[in-house]
Specification:
Protein name: Oxidoreductase
Number of strands: 19
InterPro entries: Ald_DH/histidinol_DH, Ald_DH_C, Ald_DH_N, Aldehyde_DH_dom, PaaN_2, Proline_metab_enzyme
Strand order of the largest sheet: 14-15-16-11-10-17-18
Domain Aldehyde dehydrogenase: 92-496
Shape: globular
Strand content: 15-25%
Radius of gyration: 25 Å
GO cellular component, one term: cytoplasmic side of plasma membrane
Pfam families: Aldedh (PF00171)
Distance between the termini: 36 Å
């Protein structure tokens, strides 16, 4: 039997490298993002596709404590039949099983838990092509994006969380000697031990759009800090997290540990199992990605738990001026189109002064800018094959309904169009819609339009744009912001506005870095400074809120 200590020893070099990378914040990746034969091997891609196909139309092989019956809830946005069923969870049985697993998991210690977690990651990476197909056909991401965001990048984020958690839980020595000199006598001598104790049962509530990328940080941070985890996937995207839980339980069992350290909570839509679990007195940590409405409910009602939420918001672009107009248009068009805007980081509100902006291609009025951005979108998405690979597919009817509503509104600058994918004729693919508004139309643009819907909003001036940006983000939240300006004074003012609003800021992006993409081990994703999120997903609080260190001491 390979023990947790053995696994830590085998992965120690990787873990130390990850801790160093997280501290340096430079570029580093442990898992290759290219689905290339030269990287993963000649047979990796076809083997992964065969493994995915073998899962379809049958019960998924994973044990769930207290399961009663099965559920089958997923529909591929690409139109293929999935038909995978999962054991239906009894929430009370899941909590009881997780609670029973705490003592043995605590006894493994931080290094052993990090070794187990890293071995889980290694095995997830070995199934990356299978995982990519699972992510593609539940989330609607195009395959390459699913391979990168749902595979390699999600695994990097998991490793970053493991590194943060290991560093935090080993900062205090597990054993120390204490000696206090005494006048005229022997010193007072004691031995003191510090034990990392998890907060309790952890709950990870997944989303449809990024089931692994958004769930892995909380899952792995909780595991390394000593907490058993119940994984509650969105009913529309169960398979990627079911594969994850299957691997977790496999590794735990092989290491001689209780597999109920990680369990799966699949449900029918409307069962409300997330609310039941999140408010259970033994559930002490909740990680949630999804709608602002349910995120707000969790923060208000799961009072016994530490709640980490990542909600969406009014991601904003402030346009003032640019020295690379064509680069700006290319970059922004791609940001609006990537995965059909179904990212919590996609820009929604684009603010432009009524008098227009100065560029290296001359002055541009708001009308001219809107026409130029529409042309850039058409150029990017003109070829159906390239468009399908960029846009992916619409994940659910709610996104499609918002798109339809926006497309029927006045002020359309760029209409949405259907795209046909020859490989998946049943896929639901749409290009973005761009609408023109005035800053006075607050009721429209202060509402979140998750999906391929963006607004070009005319303001009185750049100063007014920054004021609108600050006020809307402080009130409604955001995860990203972007400013374009050639003026040092405007850039300085934008930085101050972002700090006041509590949101991460990107400046003058015209190349291969996009506002809606973040890099593990370098970029912070999410923020605790506005209503869209309660913690950066890899900051100190995200880890430190998951455990305590308890001390025991005795005389020598």
């Amino acid at each position: 039997m390979t023990t947790a200590a053995d696994l830590y020893a085998s992965h120690r070099e990787l873990l130390e490298r990850a801790i160093t990378a997280a501290a340096a914040r430079d570029y580093w990746s442990a898992f290759p993002e290219s689905p290339s034969k030269s990287v993963y091997g000649e047979d990796a891609a076809p083997a992964g596709e065969r493994a995915f196909a073998a899962l379809l139309g049958k019960p998924f092989p994973v044990d769930v404590p207290g399961a009663a019956g099965t559920v089958s809830t997923e529909r591929s946005p690409y139109g293929i039949e999935l038909g995978v069923s999962y054991p239906k969870a009894d929430p009370l049985a899941l909590v009881a099983a997780a609670r029973a697993a705490i003592p043995s998991w605590r006894a493994v210690g931080p290094e052993g838990r990090a070794g187990i977690a890293t071995e889980i990651l290694r095995r997830i990476n070995a199934r990356i092509f299978e995982m990519a197909h699972a992510v593609q056909h539940t989330s609607g991401q195009a395959f390459v994006m699913a391979f990168q965001a749902g595979g390699a990048h999600a695994q990097d984020r998991a490793l970053e969380a493991i590194a943060y958690a290991l560093a935090a839980t080993t900062r205090m020595p597990a054993r120390s000697a204490w000696s206090k000199p005494q006048r005229g006598g022997d010193p007072l001598s004691m031995v003191k031990t510090g034990t990392v104790v998890g907060r309790g049962v952890a709950l990870v509530i997944g989303c449809t759009t990024f089931p692994t990328w958004n769930s892995y940080p909380g899952l792995f941070a909780s595991l390394v800090t000593g907490n058993p985890v119940i994984v509650k996937p969105h009913p529309g995207a169960v398979l990627p997290l079911a594969i994850t839980v299957q691997i977790c339980r496999e590794v735990l069992t092989e290491a001689g540990l209780n597999p109920d350290v990680v369990t799966l909570a699949a449900e029918e839509p409307g069962d409300g199992i997330a609310a039941t679990l999140a408010t259970h007195p033994d559930v002490r940590i909740v990680d949630f990605t999804g709608s602002s409405e349910f995120g707000d409910w969790l923060e208000a009602n799961a009072r016994q738990a530490v709640v980490y939420t990542e909600k969406a918001g009014l991601n904003t672009v402030v346009l003032d001026s640019t020295g690379d107009y064509r680069g700006l248009l290319r970059n922004l068009a791609f940001s609006l189109s990537l995965y059909s805007g179904q990212m919590c980081t996609t820009p929604q509100n684009i603010l432009i002064p009524r008098a227009g902006i100065e560029t290296d291609d001359g002055h541009r009025t708001p009308e001219q800018f809107g026409a130029d951005l529409a042309t850039a979108l058409d150029k990017l998405l003109g070829d159906p094959k390239r468009a399908a690979g960029t846009l992916g597919a619409i994940v659910n009817d709610a996104v499609l309904a918002r798109l339809t509503e926006a497309a029927g509104s006045p002020g359309v600058v760029h209409p949405s169009a259907e795209v046909t994918d020859d490989q998946f004729p049943g896929a639901t693919i749409r290009t973005p819609v761009l609408l023109r508004l005035d800053a006075a139309d607050e009721k429209t643009y202060t509402r979140e339009w998750f999906g391929p819907v963006s607004f070009l909003i005319t303001t009185d001036s750049t100063e007014h744009s920054l004021r609108v940006f600050t006020e809307t983000v402080r009130a409604h939240g955001a995860l990203t912001a972007l400013v374009h300006s050639t003026s040092p004074e405007v850039l300085a003012a934008a930085r101050e506005a972002a700090l006041d609003a509590g949101v991460h800021l990107s400046e003058n992006l015209t190349g291969g870095v996009f506002v809606n993409q973040t890099a593990a081990f370098s970029d912070l994703h999410g923020t605790g400074a506005n209503p869209a999120a309660t913690a950066s997903l890899t900051d100190d609080y995200f880890v430190s809120g998951r455990f305590f260190t308890l001390q025991s001491r005795h005389h020598v």
